[in-house]
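Repro:
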Amino acid sequence: MSADEIKGEYPFAELAKRQHRQPRGRGRPLKGVRRDPTTVYLTEAERELLGRLQVELQRYFSVNRSELVGVAVALLSEMVNDAVAADALTSNDLDAFLAWAVDKIDFIKLENQKKDRGRSR
């Protein structure tokens, strides 16, 4: 049975096909990255920090909390990979690891300040 025969016998077949097609160029565009649902348990303080961060960044570009968590995971992964490669990761618990990460960020800020002072001279 050919497609023309099906259309003749089933007049709604073509209509059904058209209804199932997605309209192009309408609606919100899809995000570039597909995210899988997962559960993250945050303390109240962490949830508040995440909310504040989202609000601050929303002033500059559209971002949701899942994307921010993804950025945080990527940044932390890079920091850990660099430390492991340099055999500089010595943390033995979560609190020590947090202190290490904060110290690393403070060091990066200090280095950037030094670079900025060198440029202004």
